[in-house]
Write a structure and sequence with these properties.
Elements: E1 6-12, E2 25-30, H1 36-44, E3 62-67, E4 71-75, H2 86-102, E5 106-114, H3 121-132, E6 137-142, H4 149-163, E7 174-176, H5 185-198
Parallel strand pairs: 2-4, 2-5, 5-6, 6-7
Antiparallel strand pairs: 1-3, 3-4
């Protein structure tokens, strides 16, 4: 897919602040410091559009980006960073699940995990929630360039086994991704394009 325009719209901290209209949205979610912003910037080919930080837990709202004036990317707050106060962690959970449950414009959720580590309990809970609520989603394992080919193969097997298969029995599809080398970029864009096509949105 060719991106002709990409711009940050707003950060939203409450449902009333979500952009209006039925423009389709693709959400990016995962634990803190898993590489969500780097993945978004890599997909768009725009350095620094989604802000990256060495401090986990920095993103606290939903960040909306307008692409090609046709659809939006949504960067959701990361989860699982222990040093964040409990009250903030709880509010993040409410923000994220509220968006995922209520947003009718959502056509695809991209669940991001770190290829270097086994999925956490929170990763499993998120995956189970997406499956239970029949949310179209894709699992992307970032930082794949940090592993050897054999290590990456074993990691993808472990992620698949840990997260399990959807209720329809099909194997979970995990895409290895590297923001450094571009590995997996075309596969992720094909999945996004398919979701937008189903939503009948020209792109």
């Amino acid at each position: 897919m060719k991106i002709t325009s990409a711009e940050f719209i707003k950060s939203a901290f409450a449902e009333a602040q979500w952009p209006r209209g039925d423009m389709p949205e693709v959400a990016f979610l995962g634990r803190s410091n898993v590489g969500k912003s780097s993945l978004i910037n890599s997909l768009l080919g725009v350095k620094g559009l989604a802000r990256t930080s060495s401090t986990p837990g920095r993103t606290q709202g939903l960040n909306f980006f307008l692409l090609n004036e046709r659809f939006r990317f949504v960067d959701l707050p990361g989860y699982g960073y222990a040093r964040v106060p409990e009250s903030i962690r709880r509010s993040w959970g409410e923000i994220v699940t509220g968006y995922l449950a209520k947003r009718t414009a959502l056509v695809l959720s991209i669940h991001i995990v770190d290829s270097r580590h086994a999925p956490t309990k929170l990763d499993v809970q998120l995956h189970e929630w997406l499956v239970a609520h029949a949310k179209s989603h894709l699992i992307v394992a970032t930082k794949a360039d940090k592993l050897s080919r054999n290590e990456l193969r074993k990691s993808l097997q472990q992620i698949t086994q840990t997260l399990g298969a959807p209720s329809d029995g099909r194997p979970t599809d995990v895409i290895a991704y590297s923001a450094m080398t571009g590995l997996g970029r075309d596969r992720v864009w094909r999945a996004i394009g398919a979701a937008l096509t189903v939503s009948q949105t020209p792109f």
